[in-house]
Amino acid sequence: MESEKGTLPMNEVYNPGMNVYSEIYRKSLEDPENFWAKQAEILTWYSKWNKILDDSKKPFYRWFVGGKLNVSYNAVDRHLEQHRRNKAAYIWVGENGEEKIVTYDGLYRRINNLAKALLNLGIKKGDRIVLYLPMIIEAPVAMLAAARIGAVFSFVFAGFGAGALAERINDSKAVLLITADGGFRNGKVVELKKIADEALEMTSTVRNVIVIKHARNDVNMVEDRDIWYHEIVGDSHTYVEPEHMDANDPLFILYTSGTTGKPKGAVHSTGGYSVWVASTLKWAFNPDEDDRWWCAADIGWITGHSYIVFAPLILGLTSIMYEGSITYPEPDRLWEIIEKYRVNILYTSPTAIRTLMKFGEKYPQRHDLSTLKVLGTVGEPINPAAWKWYYEIIGNSRCPIIDTYWQTETGGFMIAPQRGLGLPPLKPGSATFPLPGVDPAILDDAGKEVRTGEKGYIVFRRPWPGMLMTVNNDDERYVKTYFSKFPGYYYCGDYAVKDEDGYYWLLGRSDEVMNVSGHRLGTIEIEDAIVATGLAVEAAVFGKPDPVKGEAISAFVVPKDANADRHELISEIRKRIRADLGPIYVPDEIRIVKLLPKTRSGKIMRRVVKAVALNQIPGDLTTLEDSTSVDEIKSAIEAFK
Ligand code: ATP
Ligand code: MG
Q1: Pocket of ligand 1 (CB under 6 A)
Q2: Burial of 93 per CB tally in 10 Å (0-12, 13-18, 19+)
Q3: Are 206 and 200 in contact (CB under 8 A)?
Q4: What ipTM was predicted for this assembly?
Q5: CA torsion sign, 581 to 582 to 585 to 591?
Q6: Bridge partners of 497?
Q7: Contact assessment for residue 293 and residue 282, using Cβ atoms and an 8 Å cutoff
Q8: 315 pLDDT exceeds 70?
Q9: Which of 408, 430, 527, 620 most suits a substitution to test ligand 1, by most atoms within 8 Å of the C-beta?
Q10: CA-nearest residue, atom 11 of ligand 1
Q11: Using an 8 Å Cβ cutoff, are 632 and 593 in contact?
Q12: How far is the CA of 520 from the centre of ligand 2 (A)?
C-alpha cells in the first residue's frame, strides 16, 4: 500500500518537529492526572473537580468528578470579558446568498433571551429538548440556551423524516421540540414543521413546540401547543444566570449515523466532552485567533456539534456557517464561499470531496482559494485519489490534510495529524497518529495485539475525557456494544492496520471485513484501488457467501463517465486491482451503478448494498439518504441476470 500512496515531503514547511508531539503524547499517557488537570484549564470552572478520573464503576468512566461549570458561559460569556465582544462568532450564509454576521455579543443576547423563554415555559434542569432545525443561527443558540439552564438537548438532523424524528423524541422523552417552518435545500423549501407535526402524532411526551420563522412557508400552528419563537423571545437584554452544572451532568444526546444498524443515543457529558472538543480542535488544526474556520458539516451530526458549535465557540473563533447544498446553484458553491469570505481552514468529508471531484477542476479554478492554509476531512476513510485531489487542486499543494478519525461516541478527534503539536509527514489515506490521551491498539479475534502491518480491530485501551457516558436508556447496550468484544477495552467497530512507521490506516467497518480463501480483506483497500483508476467516483465492496472461498468479493461501482463502455471499465478495474493489490483482491463481480446507498451524513451503506444484492431485507433504513439507490442496486443486478 505504501508504494501506491507514498509520503509527501511536507515536513520542511509545516513541521515544527514531531518531538513536540511525542513529548506531549508521552506525558498524557504517563501522567494523565497532571496532564488533564492542566489541559482542563482550557475551560473556566465555577469550582474545580476533586478527582480527574473515577473508574470505580468501569466501563462507566467519570471525568473531572465534582467540577462545576456551564458550557454556555464558556462558549460565550467569558469571551465578552476577553475583548471578543464584537468579534464575529458566526458568518452565516444562506443558500440564496443572504448573509448574517453574529458577534459574540449578539450570540450572548440571543442565548439569554431564549434561555429566559425556556424557563418561562417551565423547562427545568434535566428536561430533554429535541431540536429539529436547519443550519440557522438559532441552532447553536438553542443548543447553548439549553446548556445554560441545564436542559439536555437532542438534535435531530433536518434531513430526517417523521419516523426517524418520532423515534428520537420517544427515545429521549423530550418535553419540548424546537423547529422551524422550513429550511432551504437545492433551491426548495423542506417543510420541517409539517414533518414535525407528523412525528408528533407518533409521540406523547412533547408539551410545546417552538417554531422559528425562517423559510416563511405556511404552517399549521396547534393551539396551546405551538408557539412562534419571535413571539416569546424578546429583543431586549435579559440575563439568565447559567446553571452551575456538574461535570458529569449530560450535555446532549446524539444518535449515531445508523450506518451499521439501529442508531445508538450517545450521551455526552458537560465537562469531559467540552475539554475534549476544545483541546482536540487546537491540537489537530491549531487555528489562529483571526482565522476563519469552516466546518462544512451539518450541525445535526457530531461533527457539527463538536466543531461548528462547542469547540470553536469555547476557543472564541469565527466560524462560517452555511445553510444549503454544496452543489447549489452550481458545483462551485464551497469554493465561492471560501473566496468571498476568505476562509482559512476548511473541514469537510470524503463524500463531499468525491462529489465535487466528479465535476472537475474547472469549478475550483474559477476561484481564488489562496487564503486556505489547512484542510480537513472526516466521516469515512478518504480514498488516496480523493486526498490527492483535495491536496493538489483545492490546497494548491500547500495545505496539510488533517484526516480525523473519530466517532459520535468519542466526542472528538481520536487519530489525526496534529498541526498544533508538530505535523508528521502525511501519507494520503492515513489518519496518522493518536491524540494525547488516546491509547489505541490493534487486536486479532483472540484479543491479542497483531504485529506491525497486520490488520485487526482497533480498540482504545483507556478512557478519554470526550467519551460517551452511556447509551441513552440502555446501559446494557453501552456495555455490550463497546466493552464486551474485548473486555476492558473500548471497541470502535473499525478495522485498521499500523504500518512500520507507526501510522494508523483505517480500513473500514470490522463487520464488513471479508474472509476470502482464509485472507481477511478490508473493503476500503479495494474501493481505494477502484477509485484510484480515475475511472470511478466511488465504490462499495462487500463479501458474498461462496462455497469455495468462504466469501467472494463483490463491487458496485459508480463510474466517472456515465457513458463509458461497461466491459472496458470492468476489465480496466480488474487489471488495476491485480497490479496494485494482487490477484486475491480482484472482485469476482463488478457492477456499474449510478449511485450508492448512503446515510444522510454521506457514508456509504455497504450493509444495504449487500442485503439488496443477496435479496435479503436491508434492516433499518430510516437513516438512508435516497431510496432510489436501493432500486439502482436492484436494477444493476437485474441487468446481469
Ligand atoms: P452507526 O454507529 O450507527 O453504524 P456510524 O458509525 O456511521 O453509524 P458515526 O459516529 O457518524 O456513525 O461515524 C463514525 C464512523 O465513521 C467510524 O467508526 C468510522 O467507521 C468512520 N470514520 C469517521 N471518520 C473516519 C476517518 N477519518 N477515517 C476512517 N473512518 C472514519
Ligand atoms: Mg458507529
Answers
A1: 256-261, 263, 302, 378-381, 403-408, 431, 492-494, 506, 509, 601, 603
A2: buried
A3: yes
A4: 0.99
A5: positive
A6: 455, 505
A7: no
A8: yes
A9: 408
A10: 257
A11: yes
A12: 21
C-alpha cell at 5: 500512496
Alpha carbon nearest to ligand 1 atom 1, residue: 258
- Sequence-distant (6+) residues with CB within 8 A of 110 are 102, 137, 138, 141, 145, 233
pLDDT in tens, 438-453: 999 999 999 999 999 9
Closest CA to 306 of 338, 266, 341: 266
Q: Which three cell numbers stand for residue 569?
A: 471499465
On whether the CB atoms of residues 465 and 63 are closer than 8 A, the answer is yes
CA-to-CA distance for 561 and 544, rounded, in angstroms?
27
Ligand 1: residue of 280, 414, 494, 622 to mutate (most ligand atoms within 8 A of CB) is 494
Rounded distance, CA 59 to CA 198, Å?
A: 38
Atom of ligand 1 at shortest range from CA of 493: 18
Q: Calculate the dihedral angle through the C-alpha atoms of 632, 638, 640, 641, rounding to the nearest 10 degrees.
A: 170
Return the best residue to mutate from 254, 405, 480 for the ligand 1 pocket (most ligand atoms within 8 A of CB): 405
Comparison of pLDDT for 573 and 636, the residue scoring more: 573
Q: For residue 405, which ligand has an atom nearest its CA?
A: 1
pLDDT in tens, 595-628: 999 998 889 999 999 999 998 988 888 888 888 8
Which ranges in 494-546 belong to alpha helices (H)?
A: 523-532
What does the alpha-carbon distance between residue 587 and residue 575 come to, in Å, rounded to a whole number? 11
